Amino acid sequence: MEWTVQELADRAGVSGRTLRHYHQIELLTPDRIGSNGYRYYGPTAVALLQRILLLREAGLSLAAIGEALGSDANPADEIAALEEHLAHLEHERDALERRDRLGRTHAPDATRRPTAADGHDARRLQ
């Protein structure tokens, strides 16, 4: 069985433009291109598209996906890319948590009324 760009796009929940872009960057190539210029995708390409979409949903960039799924890649490359991305996400989370803690320790006390010591004119606050 084969699917055209639009048929596959509809089934996969992506746009035809996305599939054409994946072809342009050589991430997902069609099984064949018909004499009419249509791209046709078979079951192997559909399985690859599912992996691409899963990795995109996990937050990997197209470049990282291309490296992980390249023609000379093996399953260990895909795992390594996911682990690297996970480490990056953990680093970002830690940085956000530190920033949040700093914000809470330096935030003004909402229950305390501002004073002249805070740089406010007490007469204007009444």
Automatic annotation (TrEMBL):
Task: Tell me where on the tree of life, at the top rank, the source sits.
Answer: Bacteria
Q: What is this protein called?
A: MerR family transcriptional regulator
Native organism is Corynebacterium suedekumii
Tell me which Pfam families the record gives. MerR_1 (PF13411)
| Alphabetized SUPFAM superfamilies for the sequence | Putative DNA-binding domain
**Disordered as annotated region, ranges:** 92-126
**The entry's keywords:** DNA-binding
Report domain HTH merR-type positions: 1-71
